[in-house]
Write a structure and sequence with these properties.
The chain is 43% helix and 16% strand. By secondary structure, it is an alpha/beta fold. It has a single domain (3-248), classed as Alpha-Beta Barrel (TIM Barrel). It has an eight-stranded parallel β-barrel with strand order 1-2-3-4-5-6-7-8, surrounded by seven helices. The model has no long low-confidence stretch (mean pLDDT 95). The structure holds 2-phosphoglycolic acid. The site of 2-phosphoglycolic acid has 13 residues, from strand 8.
């Protein structure tokens, strides 16, 4: 069977630090109303922590799942300001992003810490969405695959059983929020590289999303690539119509 048919498409909205109760209510209502028309694609949103309860209440039964943008590597304890995976599970989260480039860059998250967060998410029954990607200077100096391999290494070391339960997102840092998406061919090349690494340990069913300025008008060309299984969408996920159009692509 064609692998494209086996891996169901997944589109996740990353709201980042946007929204309030009133604007979320409108957005969630519009997503709920439009979800049914999108067809055979899994749709999810990752809200800021305080609004996860609101997302859960609003999206119940809609077919859209929800999650967080980060998770603590610790199970519980004296970790002021952190949120554990079991707390997210308590709000019926399906997902947690881990290792988003904004967290790697602004909060000093290391490859090892990202892997620890992925393990914490898995142990509470969540699916970690592990983000990897190179900066502009790393890309320009021809180091993309070295950087991705380094970021993947502590995850690969966990073995196929764990890795098969994760989702990966390739997000070139230079494409995030810049309007400068990778071309489908550029993204496919890196996705194929990631896929090969995952397959080398026998993790063959993992979904790999592309992120970085995904919009309704470039989504279909990205999704046409054999190793691109969906998208992690920032800016365009804040407008229900744009987000649903991306999912419909
Ligand atoms: P963007 O963000 O779609 O606004 O580029 C993507 C992301 O950071 O996940």
């Amino acid at each position: 069977m064609d692998t494209l048919q086996r891996r169901k498409r997944l589109v996740i909205g990353n709201w980042k630090m946007h929204g309030n109760q009133a604007s979320n209510a409108t957005l969630l209502e519009e997503l709920r109303a439009g979800a049914a028309s999108v067809g055979a694609c899994d749709i999810a949103i990752c809200a800021p922590f305080p609004y996860i309860g609101q997302a859960s209440a609003s999206l119940q039964g809609s077919g859209i799942t929800w999650g967080a943008q980060d998770v603590s590597p610790h199970a519980q304890g004296a970790y002021t300001g952190e949120v554990s995976a079991s707390m997210l599970a308590d709000f019926a989260c399906t997902w947690s992003l881990v290792g988003h480039s904004e967290r790697r860059a602004m909060h000093g998250e290391t490859d090892k810490l990202v892997a620890d967060k992925a393990v914490a998410a898995l142990s509470a029954g969540l699916t970690p969405v592990v983000c990897v990607g190179e900066t502009q200077s790393e890309q320009e100096s021809g180091h993309t695959s070295d950087v991705i391999a380094r970021q993947l290494a502590p995850l690969i070391a966990l073995g196929a059983q764990q890795v098969n339960r994760m989702v990966f997102a390739y997000e070139p840092v230079w494409a995030i929020g810049t309007g400068l998406s990778a071309t489908p061919e550029q993204a496919q090349e890196v996705h194929a590289f990631v896929r090969k690494r995952l397959e080398s340990i026998g993790a063959s069913q993992v979904r790999i999303l592309y992120g970085g300025s995904v919009k309704p008008d470039n989504a279909a060309n990205l999704f046409a690539m054999p190793d691109i299984d969906g998208a992690l969408v920032g800016g365009a996920s804040l407008k229900a119509q744009d987000f649903l159009r991306i999912a419909a692509a």
